[in-house]
Design brief:
alpha+beta, 18% strand, 300 residues, 9 helices, six-stranded antiparallel β-sheet, Beta-lactamase
Amino acid sequence: MARGRHAHPRRFPHAPRRIVAICLALMMGSVGSLGIKMGRIQAESSTRPIPTTTITLSPNPFADHAIVNFLSSRRNDVTAAVCDLRTGAIYTYNPDVAMPTASMVKIDILAALLHRAEITGQPLSDSDISLATLMVEHSDNDAATTLFNELGGPSALNSFNQLIGMSHTTSFYNWGATLTTPYDEIALLRTLVVPSAVLTDADRQFEMGLMEHVVDYQRFGVGTGETAGALVGLKNGWFPFDRGWGINSAGFVMLGNTEYLVAIQTAANPSEQYGRESVSTLSRLIWTAERRISATTPTR
């Protein structure tokens, strides 16, 4: 399905080929029940292979001294994951902690719609394409609600998420209350970036194109720290909760030998600015670490 100006070819030579109806109190209650450590979080990292994929481990960016020092200094809750597309290795910080997505779920809604369009043989209408553009590039909530309802609500999104391996993600009638982990977000990003049977190349290129054209004032987090010439696509989420702001950022970064996916989620931020600084600074530090790693680690 051609998608106008966004349907342009990309090559990822090193990537593996496999791939509010619920109230805010309930949203925060769900987060609290998962045992997020309050205050300073001790550095914790792990690697987990993507099923059926052979992994060759590369150095862990969360072991980088600058990242360790920065994360230990924050007063909020942070969980994150990075996937090195050259090797397929996934690294996580404070793993298996689920937090609300807020608007970050909008790329999930669109991916599910594109998948349904393929299996039903009914392409997205011009109206749907316009709504998808507003939803991703401008984070329009009304467009997201319309498309979420058209998809079939939380049951349809949950089914799609199970299909692509997002086993720790749960959607609700309030799409912004969707709970996910950075590891699951990496599964979604891989579905968009790496060719597979889930989405056609045209569909992947369409959605990636929208993520590349997110408006400037929303390009914090993954959208910061890259040098000129990097291909960057992202979708962020932000919302004030009773316990502080939730600020999230997920996307892809490609420049030369540096090809990675990243998802960062934060909660209990004392202000929106504090949360934005957290995801943006961590993104810049990850960029620096990944550039160094890609320069010293051969592709296997």
